[in-house]
Structure formats: C-alpha cells, structure tokens
Amino acid sequence: MTVKNNLVCIYTYKGDSVNIPKSVARVINDLDLKESSFKSARGNILDYVRYCNEEKGGFPTEGEPQAHARLINSYMTNLKKEGYARNTISGRWNWVSTLYKQLSMPLLNDYAFLEENPIELLEDRTGKTRTDYLPPESEQSQNKRAYYVDKEDLELLCDNLPSPAFRNEVMIRLTYTTGLRSSELANLKLENVNLEENLLEDFWVPKTAESRSLWIPDTTVWYLDQFINGGYRMSFSMAEESEYLFPNNRQEKIHSQRLTKVLKKAASNAGIQESLGEDKSGNTRAKVTAHALRRGHGMHLYNQGKSLPEIQFRLGHSSPDQTSEYLPITVEESKQQLTDVTF
250-280: string of b/e by CB count within 10 Å (b at 16+)? Predict the structure, then answer.
C-alpha cells in the first residue's frame, strides 16, 4: 500500500495502481498469514477489485448485496472465458469469498457494510457455486484426483517409512484420521493437542487464516501420547525450545511439504508410487501425496456412510460442493451408499 486518503487506499498490483475502498483494505490488512500466503491472498483480492474498477466503474460500498452477487458472477464468468486454470479460478473464488465474509459481518467488523453475504446469495438465488465457473478438468488432473490412500495402502506406507520412522508414522496416521492439510499439520502446536478430550483445539489454518478444532480417535491419541510423552518428540534438537508439535533438528517446526516428501519416499519403498505426468514446471506429478492421504480420510468417512456436510467439516472445506469435487466418488461407491435406501 502506498497512498491513503479519506475515500480510498491505493495498492500496486502487477505494476498498476488499484484504488480500493478502505473497507477492502481493512480486510487485506487483517489477514493473518505468512508473507508468501499473504501476497497470494492480496493479489487475488486486488485482481477482483481491479476488475470491478475497470469493467463496472468501481467497487460499490453502498447498495444491495444483489449488486455484488452480479459482480461476482461477471468476474468469475470472465475468468473462465479468458481461459484461466482451474486452480487459479478456485483461488480467486476462495479469496473473494473471504472478502465478502468479512464485509458482511457488521456485528464483528466495524467496516462491514453488507447485511447479506453475496456469495451465499448467489448460490441461493441461482444455484451457482465455485464449480460452475471452473473449466473442464484435464485427464491428468482426473487421474491424480482418482486415487486416495485406503486402509491397506496406509499400512503399506507405515511399514515402509524413512527415518525418523515413528515421527513420520504419527504424522501420517494423524493426517489420515483427521483429514488435516499438510500446512495445518506443520503448524500444529503442543497447546492444540488435548489428549484427555480427544481433540485438536483451535489450531491455525493457514489457507483460510482462521482457527478450527477436530475430534481425533483413540488409536491416534495413543500415537500422539507416545510421541509427546514417550520421549520421541524430545529426541529432536529443537524440541525443547519449540512450541510446535513436530519440530526437527534444525527448525522449530517441519516444513509444510515434509509430509508429501515422506509419503513419496514411503510409497516408493512400498512399490505403490506412480508418475501421473508432469506439472507446468516440468516436475513429476506423484500419485501418493499429502492430498491423496487427506482424500483418503474423506473417502473413508464416505464409505462409512457419513454425509457430505459431515465430511466437509472434517476437511475444512467452504461448502459441500467443494467436498464433492475433491472426493473421487464413483457410481459404484454411490450405489453402495444407497443399497439400504427404500423409495
């Protein structure tokens, strides 16, 4: 941010100056994210405001939520028309959603001016959600999403872990039984772990800049108890001075990509790793990743008869629609859920 006056704040985005209302600036400034994530979130929000300025004459700070719902629809439709990638459009949707969530909470935010969330209004009135604005999924992406770690593969992975094996097993079993994102796992603190109540309490979610809590099963509690109180955690050089659950010998917490690296090595050792082509940077796309483990949690719940809203809560998704797209539910698996239903 470079200049401020009574009406607008002026941000620089991709070399251009973007005038944004102070209310939007407040939302951006209040984002509690590490620098790289903050820049990405700010960029997504600024892109939307710039669109409003260029195509609609500005971002309205008065008027009805319907006007903002129309702006969202126009912006997202334009992104799809311009050929943006699915991940880019999904990211824009998520941060525009965050923006409007804060602008429609006058009870908590003195800068909020909307009485209704336009994102929710758009869905209620038109049925449109993030999925409606995404381009068709590529075959490579479909293949990657089709795989998830089931219980059999989970045990294979745990039997073929690289060192430190027990710490890595705790990370994998905790992720599989909770559906944690790898960034959430890396940011877990000791104070978040309540072994007596089987809870991960008020842990930080970097993706949404919020906190949430999750129940954990007894089997996972046992692994956590052994790791924390059985001397395993304290074997790491940084453990005594770290507040995080998973320190290492050089830093107070593991990197958010550590889980995927462990999984890739374990899957290779177990003979279940496969290549699914390359990404845009030319890097190999692996079948067994942290997403496949997290997806396994969701599919395990689905196969146990849990509803999409229940699974949505566990995975920390913004809507059941997002959960439905995330999970590779087949016709056969859907059929299994309906065998006991009478009409």
Answer: eeebbebebbbbbbbbbbeebebbeebeeee
Q: How many residues does the chain have?
A: 343
Whether omega before 164 lies within 30 degrees of 0, making that bond cis, reads yes
d(CA 210, CA 208): 5
Q: Looking at residue 60, what DSSP letter applies?
A: -
Neighbours of 5 (CB within 10 A): 9
Q: Final residue of a domain: which of 136, 170, 203?
A: 136
337: in domain = no
The helix (run of H) or strand (run of E) holding residue 325 is: helix 320-326
- Per the DSSP assignment, residues forming a β-bridge with 9 are 4, 20
Provide the residue range defining the domain that includes 106: 3-136
pLDDT single digits (tens) 199-258: 999 999 988 888 999 999 999 999 999 999 999 999 999 999 999 999 999 999 999 999
List of E strands, 219-322:
275-278, 284-286
Cβ–Cβ under 8 Å, residues 49 and 99:
no
CA-based nearest residue to 80, from 93, 66, 94, 96: 93
- Cα–Cα distances (Å) from 8 to 58, 60, 75, 237, in that order, read 11, 12, 21, 49
Cα distance between residue 183 and residue 294, in whole Å: 12
